[in-house]
Design brief:
187 residues, alpha/beta, Rossmann fold, five-stranded parallel β-sheet, two-stranded antiparallel sheet, 5 helices
């Protein structure tokens, strides 16, 4: 069965990303055609990139890198959950992506952004470019959640009903593309 990682990109105290991750996880677990697992960047405690060699070589010196690489390698595709910080993604998410290379290659990626004015749209746009650089294949459907309308008092996630269909469509696209890319990962 295809396993999709739900990557929580913020490490900030008081972050709301885990609530979104739980919502995606619940939707994924209700399906019979895929497995989902939450991958919290904060749980790995990655320092600023500290490997002496390029990630493209796959010669990881540090245990934290090897643990992160094994986790990413174990997954068939991803749904990234990212807030928008100053019109981009959090530094912790960019750093986590940069730590490894081959482990991302030839896998599908979906995107869920959240923020104040444009629901994380600029962060998702940047993340799409970053994903392409590590050979992740982006799906078409993406979600943009507003801190004003999809959260109660900016703190408790209460997504608008209209997001449910888009979430299911995105999960289907990530699953389908992950399966289509599987022969390339095995090659």
């Amino acid at each position: 069965m295809t396993t999709i990682g739900i990557v929580l990109g913020s490490t900030r105290p008081g972050r709301v990303g885990p609530q979104i991750g739980e919502w995606i996880e619940k939707a994924g677990r209700a399906r019979t055609d895929l497995d989902v697992e939450v991958v919290d960047v904060a749980a790995y405690g990655l320092p600023l990139f500290d490997e002496p060699r390029s990630p493209r070589l796959g010669q990881y010196e540090h245990e934290h890198t090897r643990a992160w690489a094994a986790r990413i390698d174990s997954l068939d595709g991803f749904v990234f959950v990212t807030p928008e910080y100053n019109r981009s993604i959090p530094a912790a998410l960019k750093n986590a992506i940069d730590f490894v290379y081959d482990e991302w290659n030839n896998k599908a990626a979906g995107f869920v952004g959240y923020g104040s004015n444009v629901g994380g749209a600029r962060a998702v746009d940047h993340l799409r470019h970053i994903a392409g650089a590590v050979q992740l294949s982006a799906v078409h459907t993406q979600l943009h959640l507003s801190l004003q309308s999809d959260f109660e008092q900016y703190a408790t996630f209460a997504p608008a009903e209209r997001h449910e269909a888009a979430l299911q469509q995105m999960l289907t696209e990530v699953l389908t593309l992950s399966e289509a890319l599987a022969p390339m990962r095995q090659g």
